[in-house]
Amino acid sequence: MLTQLDRNKELIRRWIDFSNTGFAGSFDTFIAADYIGHLGAATMDRHELERLERQFCVAFPGAYHAIDDLVAEHDRVVLRTTARVTHQGHFEGIEPTGRSVEFTGLVVYRIQDGKIAESWGEIDFLRLIRELRKP
Fold this sequence. Notes:
Elements: H1 4-20, E1 31-39, E2 42-45, H2 46-59, E3 64-73, E4 76-86, E5 100-112, E6 115-123, H3 125-132
Parallel strand pairs: 1-6
Antiparallel strand pairs: 1-2, 3-4, 4-5, 5-6
């Protein structure tokens, strides 16, 4: 029988699998309606999260997010991930380069009623942008 911590970790595993499919389907299974996301200094709601994730998939189709570590305690799950992407669409003012890039991220998820209710992320977008802008 799975514990609540195991169920929370499994939710995040399925969320990452969903991400690796290019978010083919509905966010409703994973993200609470009143979701709040914190990415660096920015805050977003569920609709903004979906918009940004889908926009990222257009710029980097086939992006793969590996789960390097997954740790759960109480209602939180911490993910350490490495993303491997190939730049094939417009992103942050940069025309497609065809470059393959690897970057990392740390995300803390708060799980409530079987869905992601809140997250705090630190993603190494600086490395991504720097690699895309190399001459």
